[in-house]
Records
---
Amino acid sequence: MAEQGWYPAGGRIAVLTAKPIGRPLDYLAPEGGCAAGAFVEVPLGPRRVLGVVWGPGDGSFDAGRLRTVARVLDVPPMREELQQFLLRMGAYTMTSLPAMLRLATRTPGLFDAPGARKVYRLAGRDPGRMTEAREKVLEVLQGQDGLYLGELAEMAGVTPQVVKGLVKAGAVLELEEPRDLPFPRLDPDRPGKALSDDQAAAAAALRAGEGFGVTLLKGVTGSGKTEVYLEAVAECLRRGRQALVLLPEIALTTEFLARVEARFGARPGEWHSGATQSERRRLWKMVAEGGAQMVIGARSALFLPFRDLGLIVVDEEHDSSYKQEEGVIYNARDMAVLRASFCAAQVVLASATPSLETWVNAESGKYARLELKARFGVSDLPEMRAIDMREERIEPVHWISPTLVGAVQGRLMAGEQAMLFLNRRGYAPVTICRACGHQIGCDHCDARMVEHRFQNRLVCHQCGETKPIPTVCPACGVEGKLAPVGPGVERLAEEVKERFPGARVSVLSSDLFGSARALKEAIVDIAGGGADIIIGTQIVAKGHNFPRLTLVGVIDADLGLQGSDLRAAERTFQLMRQVAGRAGRAERPGVALLQTFQPEHPVIRAILGGDEEAFWRAEAEARRAAGVPPFGRMAGIILSGPEVAPLFEIGNELARRAQPLAKVGAQLFGPAPAPIARVRGRHRVRLLIKADKAAPLQPAIRAWVRRVKLPNSVRLAIDIDPQSFL
Ligand code: ADP
Ligand code: ZN
């Protein structure tokens, strides 16, 4: 039987494995044959490895030496659409196919034979003897459906023996892995909220979309973008297709999942680093089999094997966390558009402050644009004002101006919430020696170490290295002269407690929570009125709904303007608007106050004036004039290695031999030290390429880097469309 996409037993097939071989290898189809795209196990040297049947064999192999596929796995074959996406994304980001396959199969236990794994669950019986370790295991198991031994032991911080002991004592059940069950059905026809006129118009436009297309859904925070795109999800589900909603931050999901459940009557699948291995495995399989209609996930959800993906929503599409900066370097927002183009799906890019790239695509008509003008139930954005710090009389080692203190006091008296925003984790960004001026840096990176008083350590925000706070200066040896300089949120919290002694203060900073779950709980508590003053870093800027919040004070609105980054103005603009959008989301009107030393700066003026279009037009003009993205293309080359000298040698050799780049009209800058010149003990040197938008950049880069041989200790990474540079 010679079906389309079916290889009969003994036929020659090409199998792509995740091993770094570079290309699919030829094998013989197993007894019973196999489908195109089938997941298989093949012999490779002495081992068996996972692979995907990529196509017919290319015959370049001696038939007598061909080996046969060992096993066809019991999961649906990879669809043509996903294969095409991996191919194209690999070509665009200059990533090898095996590395792309790894992205699509990074799910532990996915291919174990049924029953090969055991899961552990609470039995509800007393273990008799209780120890601290046992208690931890039982605590971790609370509210879990079943965890694997390895992950349970790790989450509880105990040895597997402790778990086994609890099984013997009858307090924990050891079960065969249950069959992965489909997710509960979502019902798109349950009544949604009654939409306002422009919400209804936007929802209708999204529902009408067919096939591939991209829409920018723009509206200030609280205007109902989520309500509107859930209507697009409903329509997608009605058509029997699957929907994916990408969110930038795990912390968003509590509130979000509840909303989806309220709308569709059941919870969607969740895909993020906090999900357990068995949850991930279930979702991966159900997405492939059609047993999951909707997935809410972080950027890597883009590589799930959807059976029929009809809609991708990228919420907060401007968020920089969509850019993956390590391993395979890619921008999930752009790759969402690419994937949608292969599966005839609609894309909705939602934001109050779109990225300039998206704004330009909407201006030029490449993307459709829908706008929600009013905030739902509230007439306007919060009132925004600058506090001119040059005129404030502020005590030394304090950061909250008298004007802002007065405003917070007013909220406290009214029983409302105030938020102070400072995008700096930790206690103080710099520790300096008052005797010699030395600043304490990381031993492995060119970064200064940040004091975290809560942990009582210095932390490198680049590599995560920590060390105790020294009492003696490592440079001059003088004792007792080390002092923190500048504020982080922990230090700001001290000032708040001193100024507002009776207030309940909550600090929201990602590093203060042991788990995503704990962070979610804190957010729910705050939304319910559990704090009077919220101090937060970047994570508070993203979508949480605090109905009692009516004042946002931005401690240092100039912070984002100081870098020499191409996107500094855009980032600051987005962040300030998002933060300001937190205030007054319910009925009570909000006020946002921005402390700044440069109230006349164009970005600060655009934020305060509310003339967003003017800001984007000016920013687009500046970029067009400079020929930089989105009007030109850029790529970064990062060389890293244990010694700095060879990196510059190779960088210079690359620069000398850049004819392939010159041929396509591209310019090369560098080599120069990368923005962070040393990370985890590895030095980094960067070259930057700038080209015309239409230049065939990837083939030119490929031909170019091939000319220079790298020593084993040196790694070369390519970053197409870099987000941060200089
Ligand atoms: P955005 O995604 O633009 O920030 P949301 O969709 O989260 O806005 O809406 C903000 C708040 O207003 C949410 O609590 C939402 O439930 C509510 N809301 C928005 N539109 C409506 C509506 N038509 N009817 C009732 N509540 C609405
Ligand atoms: Zn470091």
---
Amino acid sequence: MPTLTLKPGREKSLLRRHPWIFSGAVEHVDGVPEPGGTVDLLSFKGDFLARAACSPQSQIRARVWTFDPSESVDVDFFRRRISRAIHARSPLLLGEGPGVRSDAFRLIHAESDGLPGLIVDRYADTLVAQFLSAGAEFWREPITNILLELTGLTKIYERSDADVRELEGLPSRVGPLRGAIPHSPLAITEHNLKFLVNIETGHKTGFYLDQRLNRQRVRGLAEGQEVLDCFCYTGGFTVNALAGGAKSVLSLDSSADALSLCRENVALNTSFVTRHSSLEGDVFHILRKFRDEARSFDLVILDPPKFAPTAAQAEKAARGYKDINLLAFKLLRPGGILVTFSCSGGVDAPLFQKIVASAALDAGVEAQIMEHLSQAPDHPVALNFPEGAYLKGLVCYRI
Ligand code: SAH
């Protein structure tokens, strides 16, 4: 097996069980690793550190499969890891209460489930997979077979079209992997509400499953409220706010397709339609316009796209977050609630809290944090992989 020997001192992160090795940490390579093939990582002194997938084209040169020198990386290895991930999604861990039904979950959350580069989401009886690293790509066929074997399902659709594939030197690939092309959009149930999910062209694998519990939280906050759902996508928060008894919900998004599915999702859950309206446009502009018109709301939701994928873009992202949060505070009536999120890996929870605090200050509003929110438990975070905790949210009460 080819080996990568690390520079002196560069074994430290591996000893803490962080699964990535950057190209700059590699002293020399013995043998010719193929893209995604398995290599042993050795310390400068030659001690075994980990067994990993090699990404010859990526800055992240190797992603660890196992730290156990006696464990080989073969089909059985993937069967064990995938089985472990599926078992970890017991209803108890997922936070479903009695009588509550959901049939859409993340089954495999990449590094945090010991499977770097592999994302698998379940939408009713269809799986949607993303192979995002050279290692995951290398094992694509056996992984696909094992997923079907262990879930008893017959349909897997591939959405390997995320930008990160390019960094790994992999082309984008989308289409059915096994089974008939699913009828898209397909219907799922989340906390007894129905949603249509477009797995072929929707964002990520089609739906923001990471917000599942937070959507339920919004449902509990919405009764009798006038709600503004910013960056609504296909209406996850909108439908929940309506189901929670909102007086009205206005959904904003720049995508006409997302808004059209949002309206369908509202209609699917019936009887709320008359309390719903939607507006296509740039949230930054619309919020300014609403401020100038002195409009106000009781509950504002801000769930923008990733402004800063990495720490390098944090400063620019901070300006974006500050801007929308400031405007949202201005539109919020006293006694109103702001539910605000960031899914930027480059902005950590303390920084996000600082940004929201300074937005309130500049808006001339006094507010308090009632609750910290994060991603749903089917998006776990390995203790040794803090990068896995990307979604942070605050529920702020305007005094
Ligand atoms: N809250 C949603 C997920 C939001 S994803 C849910 O729970 O499902 C982010 C959304 O922001 C996308 O739908 C995208 O179309 C939209 N978007 C991105 N930039 C925007 C902008 N400047 N103005 C309005 N919408 C924007």
---
Amino acid sequence: MTERDLLPTRQPRPRTYLMCPPEHYVVEYAINPWMDTTTPVDTALAVKQWDGLRQTMVDLGHTVHVLNPTPGLPDMVFAANGAFVVDGVAYGAKFRYPQRADEAAGHRAFYEARDDYRFVAPTQINEGEGDFAYLPNAHGGIALAGYGFRTEPAAHAEAAEALGRPVISLKLVDPRFYHLDVALAALDDENVTYFPGAFSEASQQVLAQLFPNAVIADEADALAFALNLVSDGHNVVINTESAAYGEKVAAAGYHPVMVELGELKKGGGSIKCCIAELRD
Ligand code: ARG
């Protein structure tokens, strides 16, 4: 018997996702340190990589809804930023930068057209799942929320009020990791993975207290956008730059699935940024 045989069985749970194809994706403005307007973007390649990601999620047994992309909104491919959905309640996004402001309407229309979700309009700046994560079985169901670069702390309180769940505020301190979802991810219903250096000392203490079994990533993992992952509780979908990190989640009993998404990194995003989870 090997050490791996003694690990808990990580069970996948079927999920519902929302994605938006990068048909209008370019880097024509820079609102995070990864964006460089002088580096050309291959939009056709981005669409091809994105479709590989969509197909991977379908092949894993998940439902993927597709949002229509709007011309002139190049970052709309980063669908995770459009809302934060818990128990059928969609707390809408209010983007930090004017270049992305109009994306919120497309997401709102998606939820308002469906009976299975109740949309709550935000008054505070927040970028949806870019800065919110949800753990349904941790401490009875808690949300983690980032602030420091994009989402306002006042939105954390607004989300708690909209969703009826405790929201734990975590301070992001490194501009390269400007959203929570490039610094931390839910691996399953109760456990997380994160890069401590992206958080303030105090927030590192909070995370260590809440998640003693977390899978800890290092700076190289975080820089590869390994933490910008999507997990169904068993399959952990990461980008192909994150092979070293893949071994860490495998050692913890999960199954890494690699997808090439390099063109999207030029916009400052990877797997998770492209996928919003719709929790009924
Ligand atoms: N260019 C986008 C921005 O700066 C990237 C968003 C990435 N999305 C994410 N969920 N981290 O807003």
---
Amino acid sequence: MFRKVLIANRGEIALRVIRACRELGIATVAVHSTADNDAMFVRLADESICVGPPAAKESYMNIPALLTACDITGAEAIHPGYGFLSENAAFADILDEHGITLIGPKADHIRIMGDKISAKVTARKLNIPTVPGSEGGVDTFEDAQKVADEMGYPVIIKAAAGGGGRGMHVVLTEAELESGFKNAKRDAAALYSDDSVYIEKYLTSPRHIEIQVMGDKHGNAVHLGERDCSLQRRHQKVVEEAPSPVINAQIRQEIGEICAKAMRDMGYVGAGTIEFLYEAGKFYFIEMNTRIQVEHPITEEVTGIDLVREQILVAAGYPLSFTQEDIKFTGHAIECRINAENPKTFVPSPGTIEGFHTPGGLGVRVDSGVYAGYKIPPYYDSLLGKLIVHGRDRPEALMRLSRCLREFVINGKGIHTTLPLFKALMENQDFLDGNYDIEFLKDIPEFSQTMLLQVDEDEQFHPSP
Ligand code: MV4
């Protein structure tokens, strides 16, 4: 087992990794930027090293500085969390060359899934159902026309180097195809210096359902069920739940076994997420994420399995501590992402948190990296933390969520959070019924414009100590 692990991340996920390491008896090294001197994860790690200025490229993603930090502290492995270097195949190669273990998949698997064309080709070879479309990339307008004519409109043109909602062009009719194709190529070249694109049938009202998988270095791979992540705004997930309201045990087992077998066949190691669009009872692969995800706790809540602990164990060469048969899905979990964001610019609120009170009680989990008195730096994503509730069934989880949203207090001058949005969502009958798709939040007024939560307007203000 590793004696010491370095965490190349910040915020709530750095804290999450510290907690898993502590339970395994592994010492932790936090690396941080000058903007995060006072962050909770820096205080709670066993050691900390400042690796650079606020800009992530010069600190959290500064590979030479991370290698030096490993050298100075004797850390044997790096957990990259999510974002930053977590899906950087070149980083994985460099760690290999330096004899440092990446707590993550093989470099080649990160590389294959990073290119959305090779990801889809690989998925199809592994018998994972994919969206109808081009076999690989489409280089010319004539080829695009042939593929689109065969499957019919609307179609979507996606950049191979894209993902997560960037570099996509929807083409509704044949008349728009030529301009759509040219624009897609031009944008892909400008955004990614890679103009490779591919074409798919455009699904108009799918749900976004993803399957959690885990593999080890002994040829074992399992699935841990699905998460429904359809509730998104501007390609940012807002609420996630497990199980999906539209997936039953039989469907879960079918798609889950397809994914687990695919991971066994490719020899995948570590945690991964296979993303699907789900429409009219069918799954269509879109992408695979080769990292732990923000919303992993809802899977932990319904399976009782510590995914980060398991990531560390399999990276150290241990077999998965459970088999597929051991995994029992219990109850229902919902996660709300608590963001601090300016309602007009959607950039992080630069304020200081004065009042911070988290809900508690049975079935309640708050994964957060902040505290009363903490000054939110403006340089990073706006996630303050996650409220995760678990209940015996969906109605109980919803009731618990409603109760928790009333208890949660986050305030301070200039601080705006997404908490009021969730309260509004709890009033929506379609959400309560589980009746939503990826377009749902577009029609909810509170989500098209973030509401303000200000100190002097908040009747729940708790003065800081
Ligand atoms: C699609 C699609 C419809 N049809 N592909 C957006 C993010 C990227 N991972 C894939 N995305 C989509 N791909 C086909 N063939 C619709 C989306 C999409 C979406 C997907 C998941 C969650 C939210 C979304 C919001 C808008 C569009």
